[in-house]
Write a structure and sequence with these properties.
By secondary structure, the chain is of the alpha/beta class. It has eleven helices and 13 strands. Helix content is about 40%, strand content about 15%. A hairpin with a 6-residue loop joins β12 and β13. The model has no long low-confidence stretch (mean pLDDT about 95).
Length: about 375
C-alpha cells in the first residue's frame, strides 16, 4: 500500500481498466451465473453495510432474510423451513453434511453417499469435515444408480445426497427413490439443488425433488444463479429446527447469543438483493425467465443437430453437453478464434453449455456457426 492515498479519478480509472479485462457474459456459455436483475442490484446497494453475522444490530435485514426463507420454502413445498442465506452451494453443502454428522455423534467414523456426478464441493467436504464421502456410480442417463447407493450403505452411513440439476450435465437424480432409501434406513437426505432449485419448479412435469418428498431433510438452492440475485447469494433450508441446532455455537460478544452459520460476517446486502428480486419477479416472472431459457436451449439443440452434433443426454433443463471429439481442443479454438467461453465435462468428456438469461437467439445462432467453423477447420 502506498503512503498517501490517490484521488478517486485515478482509482476509478484503474477499476475501469481491470473491468475491461473481464469477459462479458454475452460470450459466456460456461457459467451458471448471469447479470443480476437491476432490482437486486439497487437493493444490494441500499444494504451494503448490513452484517447478518450480528443480526441483532440489523433487525430489519434479518426480517428480510426470514421473508426470503419463507418464499423459498413456499417454492420448495415447506411451509415452515429453517435455515439461512449462505454464500452459495459449497457453503450450503458443507453445512448440510456438518449437520448430518453432528446429529449422529455416536457414530465414530461417519460416511455419506453422493452420486459420482456430485459437485466438487463434496471433495472439499471430505477434507474439511474428515468424513468418508462414498461415490455411487451413475447410469447411462447420468443419474445416480440407486442400487449402487443401497450397496454402499452401512452402519456408519449418516446420510445421502441427491442432485437436482448436476453441474456438468443438468441431470436430476431419482430423488423420490433416494427419499425412500433414506427413510427405510433412518438416515438424512440432502438435495443439492443449487442450480435446479430455481429452474425445476417452473418446468411443467418436472421430477419431484424437494420437501414434498418425506425423506428430504435439507436443500441447497442458489438465488445468485437462475434466481437472478447478486453474488454471493445461496440458501440452505432444513425440514427440522434440530438440524440448525446441531450447528449452533455460542457468540458471547455479539448482540445474539449463538450462531448457526459457517461464516461469521454475512452480507445483508445479498439478503436484500434476493428479497427484492424474488418479490419483484414472483413465480410468474421466474416462469417467463425459465421458459425463455428453455426455448433457447431447444434452439441450440436444433442448430447443433443440423451440423451433425448430438447431446450426451437429452437436456432436463438449460444445460447442454455436446458429444464432440477432442473437447479440450475445441474449447481452446472457440476461445482463441471467437472469444466464446465454454467448459468441458470430465466423464463422459464433452463440451458443456449453460444457457443463462444473458443469452439471446442471435448469440445462440452465432455460437453454432462458430462451432461449425471450428469443427471443420
Amino acid at each position: 500500500m502506498q503512503e498517501h492515498g490517490q484521488n478517486w479519478e485515478d482509482v476509478k480509472s484503474s477499476l475501469i481498466q481491470a473491468r475491461s479485462k473481464d469477459i462479458p457474459y454475452e460470450k459466456v456459455l460456461s457459467s451458471m451465473c448471469t447479470y443480476p436483475h437491476p432490482v437486486a442490484v439497487e437493493a444490494y446497494k441500499m444494504f451494503i453495510e448490513s452484517n447478518m453475522g450480528d443480526y441483532g444490530l440489523f433487525m430489519g435485514t434479518y426480517e428480510l432474510e426470514k421473508n426470503v426463507l419463507a418464499m423459498l420454502g413456499d417454492l420448495l413445498h415447506n411451509s415452515r423451513p429453517y435455515g439461512y442465506l449462505t454464500t452459495g452451494g459449497t457453503e450450503s453443502n458443507i453445512q448440510a453434511v456438518r449437520a448430518m454428522r453432528n446429529s449422529c455423534k455416536s457414530i465414530k467414523d461417519p460416511n455419506i453417499i453422493v452420486p459420482a456426478s456430485a459437485h466438487f464441493s463434496f471433495d472439499k467436504i471430505a477434507d474439511i469435515l474428515q468424513i468418508d464421502v462414498r461415490k455411487a456410480r451413475v447410469l447411462s442417463d447420468l443419474a445416480v444408480d440407486t442400487k449402487h447407493v443401497l450397496s454402499l450403505i452401512d452402519k456408519n452411513t449418516v446420510g445421502l445426497v441427491g442432485i437436482a440439476g448436476s453441474t456438468e450435465f443438468g441431470q436430476v437424480d431419482p430423488i423420490s427413490k433416494l427419499s425412500k432409501i433414506a427413510m427405510d434406513n433412518s438416515i438424512f437426505l440432502h438435495v443439492d439443488a443449487a442450480f435446479g432449485g430455481f429452474v425445476l419448479p417452473f418446468i411443467s412435469g418436472h421430477p419431484s425433488f424437494d420437501f414434498s418428498l418425506p425423506g428430504v431433510t435439507s436443500i441447497a438452492i442458489d438465488p445468485h444463479k437462475m434466481g437472478m440475485s447478486t453474488i454471493p447469494s445461496g440458501a440452505l433450508l432444513f425440514r427440522e429446527e434440530k438440524m440448525m441446532d446441531s450447528l449452533r455455537v455460542d457468540t458471547p460478544y455479539l448482540t445474539i447469543s449463538s450462531q448457526c452459520t459457517l461464516t461469521g460476517t454475512r452480507s445483508g446486502a445479498s439478503v436484500a438483493g434476493t428479497y427484492a428480486v424474488m418479490r419483484y419477479l414472483g413465480k410468474e416472472g421466474y416462469r417467463q425467465i425459465v421458459d425463455r431459457c428453455m426455448k433457447l436451449t431447444h434452439l441450440l439443440l436444433e442448430q447443433v443437430k443440423k451440423i451433425g452434433v448430438n447431446p450426451v443426454i437429452d437436456p432436463v433443463m438449460n444445460i447442454v453437453a455436446l458429444s464432440i471429439s477432442e473437447p479440450k481442443k475445441i474449447r481452446k479454438e472457440l476461445a482463441t478464434q471467437f472469444g466464446w467461453q465454454v467448459s468441458i465435462t470430465k466423464h463422459p468428456s464433452s463440451i458443456r453449455l449453460v444457457v443463462m438469461p444473458h443469452m439471446t437467439e442471435e448469440n445462440i445462432i452465432a455460437f453454432v456457426q462458430d462451432l461449425k467453423t471450428v469443427l471443420n477447420s
